[in-house]
Predict the structure of Lipoprotein.
Amino acid sequence: MSKSFRMLLATGLAVSLLTLNACSPNLNSSHSKAQSSSGTDTSQSTASYETQLRQALQSATSDFEKQVLTKAIKAGKISESDYREANEKYQQCMISKGDQITFSTDQSTGLMQESMDVDGQDYDSDKVNSDSIACAKGTNLLIRDLYERMTTNPSNADDIELIVSCLKRKKLVPNSFTKQDYLNESSKTDGSSKLDTDSEPFSQCLANPNK
């Protein structure tokens, strides 16, 4: 049986990521719309994530993380090759602990998805989570989520505004549809929302609103 999962990180290790998110500048909605319609602006992207990259560098616990993040600060982004190497190092560590995880690439987003083949009788979630915490530190803990956010939201704009822009671009909602409309529709019980949440285009907007 194949079980897809994102490992739960212990509070102590996750604090740095929460801090990075809290420190990120919140761009206004007009800038978000302009950015999503005009494409990625390198200088804006660099400015948007520079604080988070520097915060991550301060929290780095391995030479690998320090090298990746130092390069990212200069380039304005984490490279795809470094992102993949970080996940590979994490995977190797997990396998060495007996956790047979694999990564596949989601073709709609270009991001790596983690999965694991487990036997229901032998699967020890506490052990796997503990192993994940240990293996993520120094490998992909500070790199994976930040790279994925930079890829799906290069301007570090309001996530919901980006989703709404994507839905409009794909003609799934009218041009008058707003962020508040999305929040209202998303809060409705199954079957009563006007959003076609089961459609592939809708799923793509959630996964990567810039595509």
Observations:
- The CA atoms of residues 160 and 183 lie 8 Å apart.
- The first strand starts at residue 2 and ends at 4.
- The beta strands are 2-4, 101-105, 112-117.
